[in-house]
Amino acid sequence: MSISSIAIRRPVSVIMLMITMVGMGLLGLKNMPVDLMPNMNVPVVLIRTTWVGATPEDMDSLVTRKIEEVMPNIEGIKEMNSTSSENSSFVVLEFDYGTDTDKKVTDVQTELNNIRNDLPSDIDTPVVKKVQPGGETVISVTVSSKDLITAKSLAENRIKPRFQQILGVGSVEVYGGYEKEVKVEVDPIKIESYGINIDDLYNIIGQSSTNIPAGTVEEGEKRYLIKVMTELKTVEEVQNIVVSNKNGEVLYLKDVANVKLGNKDVESYNRMNGTPSISISVEKSTDGNSVAISEGVKEAIKSLSQILPSDIKLSVSYDTSTDISNSINNVKNNAIAGLILASIVLFIFLKDIRATLVIAMAIPLSIIGSFFLLNSIGVGLNIISLMGLSLGVGMLVDNGVVVLDNIYRHMTELKKPKFESARDGAAEMLVPIVASTATTVAVFLPIVMTEGLAKEVFWGMSWSVTFSLLASLLVAMTFVPMISNKILKEKVVEVQDGKLLTFIKNKYIKLLSLTLKHKLKTVLIVIIMFFAVVIPSIKIVGGGFLPATDDNVYVVTGETPSGVTLDKVDSITRRVEKILEKDKYTKNIETSVENDGFSIN
User: Fold this and answer.
1) Is there a contact between 63 and 91 (Cβ–Cβ < 8 Å)?
2) Which fold has domain 3-31+351-495?
């Protein structure tokens, strides 16, 4: 007994199977991460080191080269590149695809810890992170206020922690604004008169603000952790640091230096439409859902706006979720339009609304059913996976149409009853459509088995086509014969072809007869057309790894030579801003200025 015969005899079981497919598919669709592009595991590790005030030469000799010297201790490095610039050093390590990048990050961190004492003492701790193409900025929030000092504090201590709590957020960075700090202006004449070395004074100040573990004390069943805490919190406490105590004469820091509270030296400027502001960039983790993160940030903005001071204004300056939603909706709409057009074409040729409904129901069942399998292996909803489903729509029609057409043939030409036509028509097509599906799957499935960036990008599309076709095979061999037996008329009248279709058929028969009589000439003509038309057209069309996209954002960047002051870079940037403000199509201008250049979005 064939699978189609079992499906026809047990319609309730088939309907329950289809309902289960739809239910599980919708559940998988709900849980699928939504993004513009698929997450990609690129085996690249980045080491970033900051040393404020260092020249490119110092960064190269004292930081970059020392890091490079220990990196060969890590196995599997394919290529290593480095860049040293003012205040910063970047070392990029590239590994083979398939490498556990998280483990390599740990290995790199271990090597850096081993040479920490060999690096300059006043550099920031080197930051090691793996490159995550899927971990880009999802949304940027602008904080506007007349008091950027208070705004900066609130951004760091209230807004940033709130955004970090959102599920899927990888990191939150705050740019711009001003911070307070205690400035110590040492009088060189006074410290020389007291015989104090500037380095000793530096160490005394550092040791006066410490938090040192001092062991534990046990009392009964309780155990207490003891710490010696000398953390300085006010300007007065810094002023009263004891510099020396000789012969009962106490010398305080305020006696040899001017201690005051001032603004921390600005390392960058941020502006929104020419107004100084603070920018908060929210990046997603590799498996984060961009749309969900964006919605979470917007909800957080609403709740924060109710508790923050009234002069603190939060606004979204950049949001990828809008483009993501639009792109995905466009693909969805194209798939739906394809389904509608396919149904119309079927109706034109079959001239039977019931038969058209059979296929119109089979296609959504196949697509929705594949969502559960896609989600179970980690494929998200993005333009690549939806592209695979869109490609599959035309192929999904094939399986259903072939089965339905053969059922029709049994009913019209062989004059069989509806039950026998559905049973025999579907059974006859089992081997052909299994072979057809298998050949198509064989084209796409090898992408999953390859290595490299192509696999990272297109493996979702491969699985989308594969799962949707396998689901359509199941639907075509169970649902289509079962529903055909239920809703098709018992007696189907064979509809005669119209004049246009008859004309096309006659011309095609003549052309087919001609090619069969002149087989060699036909083959030669096809080969000549291939080399004369197809090959040249490839050069005309061009190519690329991925098509260019337009997200309605353009970026103007500028680089400045080493040694240029921040204020000089800012003055150049303002001139560029004035030029861009004259463009009537530019809606918002977000500016970031640093010592080595500027960026305007």
Assistant:
1) no
2) Multidrug efflux transporter AcrB transmembrane fold (1.20.1640)
Check if the beta carbon of residue 281 is closer than 8 Å to that of residue 256: no
CATH fold for domain 43-131:
Alpha-Beta Plaits (3.30.70)
Domain range 180-263, CATH architecture: 2-Layer Sandwich (3.30)
Determine the pLDDT at residue 300. Answer: 92
Kindly report, residue by residue over 122-175, the tens digit of the pLDDT.
Answer: 788 888 888 776 557 888 898 888 888 888 888 888 999 999 999 888 888 888
Regarding pTM above 0.70, the answer is no
Within 10 angstroms of residue 527's Cβ, the number of other Cβ atoms is 10
Helix axes 320-350, 383-412, angle to 10 degrees: 10
Dihedral sign computed on CA atoms, order 244, 247, 248, 254: negative
Statement: residue 212 has pLDDT above 50 = no
Residues 177 and 159: beta-carbon distance below 8 Å: no
DSSP 558: E
**Separation CA 332–CA 385 (nearest Å):** 11
Question: CB-based burial of residue 532 (10 Å sphere; 0-12 exposed, 13-18 middle, 19+ buried)?
Answer: exposed
Tens-place pLDDT, residues 461-502: 889 888 988 888 899 899 999 998 888 877 655 556 667 778
- Domain assignments of the chain as residue spans, ordered by start: 3-31+351-495, 43-131, 180-263, 497-543, 556-600
Asked if residues 143 and 272 have their Cβ atoms less than 8 Å apart, the reply is no
Average pLDDT, stretch 175-180? Answer: 77
* Helix H or strand E encompassing 212: strand 211-219
Please write down the HEC assignment for all residues of 269-309.
EEEECCEECEEEEEEECCCCCHHHHHHHHHHHHHHHHHHCC
Taking the C-alpha atoms of residue 584 and residue 574, their distance in angstroms, rounded to an integer, is: 18
Find the mean pLDDT for residues 274-293. Answer: 83
Residue 570 has a CB neighbour count (10 Å cut-off) of 17
